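Can't attach files on this board, so I'm pasting raw text. These are the components:
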Amino acid sequence: MTRDDPLTVADVARLAQARLPKELWDYVAGGSGAETTLAANRAALDEVAVLPRVLAGVAAPDPGTRLLGSASSLPLAVAPMAYQRLLHPDGELATAEAAEAAGVPFVVSTLASVTVEEVVKTGATTWFQLYWLRAPGVVEDLVARAEDAGCEALVVTVDVPVMGRRLRDVRNSFVLPDDVVAAHLTGGGDGTASRAHAREAGTSAIAAHTAAAFAPGLGWSDLEWLRDRTSLPLVLKGILDPRDAVRAAGCGVDAVVVSNHGGRQLDGAAPSIAAVPSVVAALAGQAAVYLDSGIRTGTDILRALASGADGVLVGRPVLYGLAADGAPGAGRVLSLLAEEFRDAMTLAGCADVAAVRELSTVRTVRA
Amino acid sequence: MTRDDPLTVADVARLAQARLPKELWDYVAGGSGAETTLAANRAALDEVAVLPRVLAGVAAPDPGTRLLGSASSLPLAVAPMAYQRLLHPDGELATAEAAEAAGVPFVVSTLASVTVEEVVKTGATTWFQLYWLRAPGVVEDLVARAEDAGCEALVVTVDVPVMGRRLRDVRNSFVLPDDVVAAHLTGGGDGTASRAHAREAGTSAIAAHTAAAFAPGLGWSDLEWLRDRTSLPLVLKGILDPRDAVRAAGCGVDAVVVSNHGGRQLDGAAPSIAAVPSVVAALAGQAAVYLDSGIRTGTDILRALASGADGVLVGRPVLYGLAADGAPGAGRVLSLLAEEFRDAMTLAGCADVAAVRELSTVRTVRA
Amino acid sequence: MTRDDPLTVADVARLAQARLPKELWDYVAGGSGAETTLAANRAALDEVAVLPRVLAGVAAPDPGTRLLGSASSLPLAVAPMAYQRLLHPDGELATAEAAEAAGVPFVVSTLASVTVEEVVKTGATTWFQLYWLRAPGVVEDLVARAEDAGCEALVVTVDVPVMGRRLRDVRNSFVLPDDVVAAHLTGGGDGTASRAHAREAGTSAIAAHTAAAFAPGLGWSDLEWLRDRTSLPLVLKGILDPRDAVRAAGCGVDAVVVSNHGGRQLDGAAPSIAAVPSVVAALAGQAAVYLDSGIRTGTDILRALASGADGVLVGRPVLYGLAADGAPGAGRVLSLLAEEFRDAMTLAGCADVAAVRELSTVRTVRA
Amino acid sequence: MTRDDPLTVADVARLAQARLPKELWDYVAGGSGAETTLAANRAALDEVAVLPRVLAGVAAPDPGTRLLGSASSLPLAVAPMAYQRLLHPDGELATAEAAEAAGVPFVVSTLASVTVEEVVKTGATTWFQLYWLRAPGVVEDLVARAEDAGCEALVVTVDVPVMGRRLRDVRNSFVLPDDVVAAHLTGGGDGTASRAHAREAGTSAIAAHTAAAFAPGLGWSDLEWLRDRTSLPLVLKGILDPRDAVRAAGCGVDAVVVSNHGGRQLDGAAPSIAAVPSVVAALAGQAAVYLDSGIRTGTDILRALASGADGVLVGRPVLYGLAADGAPGAGRVLSLLAEEFRDAMTLAGCADVAAVRELSTVRTVRA
Ligand SMILES: Cc1cc2nc3c(=O)[nH]c(=O)nc-3n(C[C@H](O)[C@H](O)[C@H](O)COP(=O)(O)O)c2cc1C
Ligand SMILES: Cc1cc2nc3c(=O)[nH]c(=O)nc-3n(C[C@H](O)[C@H](O)[C@H](O)COP(=O)(O)O)c2cc1C
Ligand SMILES: Cc1cc2nc3c(=O)[nH]c(=O)nc-3n(C[C@H](O)[C@H](O)[C@H](O)COP(=O)(O)O)c2cc1C
Ligand SMILES: Cc1cc2nc3c(=O)[nH]c(=O)nc-3n(C[C@H](O)[C@H](O)[C@H](O)COP(=O)(O)O)c2cc1C
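---
Top answer:
Structure tokens for the assembled complex are below.
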């Protein structure tokens, strides 16, 4: 490692910001509305202080765990994120490769700019993230395609009935360039895909696309249909209210992701970490609980698990790595998080992930 | 919408500030004393975080509700605000027109610069806000005039026994220009109206007018008299203590507005949102509960309703719109809030206003 | 009032700061140590939000009350403050005159730069503040002198066993000028008075004087001796722990002042307002409870009383007025506070001081 | 004392910073990760407000206490800190001399740059801090050496299984100069000592050394072995979780140091002061409780003891004094803390350390 190597995700973010055109940086880093929830995600994580354990006889901690029944080298998966070729020509191939190298699952978005089949070829454990599209048959096709490609789980994102009001994108009249497309939606469908490429002043083209393409009114019966339709593990991404978590478990969901979509959907939604304890308590083990939104360090992973989560998803940091340096950049982010988490486990006296979940936390004041 | 269109109430406020002479901006935007309560209104709203619901099958949420028994397109009314011709020659006509177009009630102030009869002609659902004036017979006349004009409710403002110490106005020696008058008070009365137009250095002329014109010592018996006098729905505006809310309900009041007058009266009064839950609990449904003071976004409306309110009043934002661009400006503010609230409902999985009131909230740290 | 008249105590403070040499400003405005408690006094007051009452039929509130059995036009006394001729040649004569005009008690310090006899001549209700000096017989003499002069109460300050570490004074090598002396201590005593006039680099001469002159090891038996010695009402100034309040009441004390000496003694002591509720509860009416430290506005008086106090003492603001403009300046401060408190009572629907004490408070977030 | 003499530890820190090369300042002042815990240590101490007592008859407080059965002039020991010759040629000799002069114990680090035998010659009460090294026999040798040298206690530091991620050191490629060595580890051992002197870009050489030299996987059985091995009092340094405190007491430990290593190990660990009350409660007197991390003033010592601790360790401030002016500088820091603590005791009405522990505290808002 040389003097200029990034030592933290914050370093990587700075490199990415320096490299990206403003409108791309804004698209990735931004949140919705007044970005209250975006900021609250960090503030609430910073307030979780951990009580480390000592003399636990931990020579080398094992950060490995099982996520949805498969081994993962960390209690972490790469969050589904759309259109990654915006940030680097290799797009999802690069990030999936990094996930594969890191030994963690990669979640491929419905709106990926590289197909799930190509992603799977990287060798990464792949989960398919499902947006429920309006066009008849498309959801069923996507499920089949994910199954056929060898995905090991379906992640149904339920917090995007419409896109959040992302004002940076609106002010930038953000639009996808012609060469970055939703790779799973090119085969016809309902012809809405072009919306994401049509620049209209004072409008976010991707919000317009979402409005046109996503099915309105998704309900529990859709989830039940899907539960019947596939035998893959099902993850419900984007819940915060424990009542929804319990209902999801009742529908046979295997895991929930406590998430506010990284502060990109409802501005004013609770920080994910604040919702975790009550979701964990309400579920009482009926389904696994993952958290995302704001994870930036190994300590954050410790905080999440000590608060009761079984694992985390990491979003923007991976894209920062991708933007900074393609697959090696994304890999650097994952290895930083791995190093940091391993160090944090060691320093907290935790031999394994189960021990991390036994740590006590106190809410502390931010300085 | 073009690149420069305002996307938030904050954008509109900036446009208004750029357009208004400082003393008018100060008059509208300012609060009393050290502006502690003014700032606390925002801070307290920002701390209310919501737990959205998912998979609720909400294709298109219905933000409509009934306010005092009449349909409203939103759980929102335009707050009573005096002398709107200060901000635009069309004054209350413009804002009432905007309210009418938005399908929400408009509350016309006793101190309006346009008469209630003219306001009613815009077609807006009109409520008349009553200040209790000293001059004998004036209150009774105003009530009769409001009834005759076709107002659908009376809003009795009880937090202005005297005007709050609005230091910006005092420092500006604020005075009404000759051509902006209290349109309901021109017909003689006690001759105090001219006080608002008499510049005295180091004095707020409108505070002097209020002191001269408003009846001191308003009591519950006055409210009882009014309850007997009119069959219109009665709203008590400006309460924060649950004991007052319960007493008001006992007097036959139909609704209370939990309000600190936008931080313009008692500096040091609690932020309205902090008082809502105990007022709602104490009333137990005996009267409707509205909130004002600090509502700036659709998320704020969600916060207020999730905290137990039945609706909100919006004040300054409408004046910012009026100052920026007359009726279209005021309309833009109301349509922004409507869009934002509809989006917030969708993102929170709420099919209707009743569902919003079932949302859970957590108090979160501000970033 | 003209445009430049001060409208708040903060305005007066600015005038004073502009007029005073830095070392005098520092002496008055400063606190001890890192000034944590000085700042916390304000922060904690700002967090107390009040729930005003409405329709209470208050035509003109009566801010009058009884303090130690005598009528006062406000629930406020001027706090004892040493050496006021530092700030203006008229010193305590000016501030006492202002107190007399305002109809509130004036507390004359043991270390006053004008004698108690002269102060009493102003006509002000005068209380004598007692520091327990080492020199034999001096305390007894001071008590007799206060009684003879016509003082109506004795205020025993118990939070100055030594002077707090006031670093501004130390850095300024602060010393009293020759013409400002402790007027009650000139008649010989133990010859320590000159210490306050002896400049030593890197030392606060007044701290040196205090160390030399004040009796160490003051105890409850001293208070019992004093209780037997005088029939004047006794006030214990400078308590924060409810256990001390209860013990004081057991010794026959008539009132306690919950105080941290305006943040000038123990840095890290609790803000006074935070200690009031438990002191009030513990005393259960056995003694009156006054508060000082940080009162700057009429709303602050409301906050203190709504938190349970019977009255407040006001310190620095009176000195700011004195420095800015002698007796009229001090008078302006008191009339500002009176106006602000009367307005706050009116706006909070309180007919009298008893009603203020019935107000509810909520702890709110600072913006 | 002259005008420029430092009056607070903060003053001394500024002098040190001015004198030290940046990389040395960073090494001493810095923390791990985002320095969240480093900052939280101060923030949490600042929030502890004390309720002083009055009329306690305290002529001159006695800050003396017993630490591990021996008399100490203050409830304070100098924390173990490695390589003090980095800051001044006299290194640990100077700080031990200062401790001796102040009458407080000095803890000599395993990684001291001066040997324990030389330290003991200063006459200071010396405790030996033990890091558990990998090399066979070294721990046993160090224990014997400490016993033989006349150390009065062993302090086993348990929060450094690996070094925290101290990013400043990494960015500075921090390395020990050739003439500053771990004086106890020169006699051969496992040859890892040279690692601390080998500059590698983008690496902290001292972290590399620690990784190579420290025994991984320290467990409770090691502690039991040590308890059997020595009859010296045993202190466990670096615990935060009450469960570990109780277990340590069960192993016969005489005291625990509630510590996060001054924010240098697990970033995100709780501030020490936040953990003290529950550790004290859980131990119920079975072992003494000391606190370190963030103590900078006499008031901080008061805060720690009022929160239940029996004493504190002070780290960086002593090094700031050493860097600023050798033994006299370190002495100035200790005498400042002594003066401040004595004043704080006096101002809080505490005759002795036991009385300090009876003070009440309230959590207050920071300004
Ligand atoms: C640029 C970007 C694109 C995203 N696209 C998707 C997506 O297609 N599907 C999805 O479920 N979530 C998407 N998310 C949300 C992430 O899966 C995840 O919830 C969020 O980024 C977590 O917060 P973090 O970025 O603070 O780690 C996206 C997030 C970002 C930043
Ligand atoms: C310029 C201005 C004039 C107002 N005039 C009146 C009035 O005449 N009658 C009344 O009841 N409230 C009046 N109010 C208070 C509003 O009705 C409302 O309570 C307040 O503005 C709500 O806070 P917000 O502005 O933060 O939304 C006025 C407020 C403003 C800003
Ligand atoms: C310049 C100055 C001198 C003071 N002298 C005395 C004194 O002689 N005796 C005393 O009991 N308190 C003294 N005090 C403390 C005040 O009585 C009072 O407790 C404090 O000023 C209240 O805080 P405030 O200044 O924030 O209102 C003094 C305060 C100041 C600012
Ligand atoms: C430069 C430095 C070196 C340290 N070396 C050691 C050490 O060798 N052994 C140890 O147990 N603690 C060591 N510590 C931690 C201190 O003993 C103590 O826990 C910490 O400094 C307390 O926090 P404070 O510096 O805020 O007072 C070191 C701390 C510093 C700042």
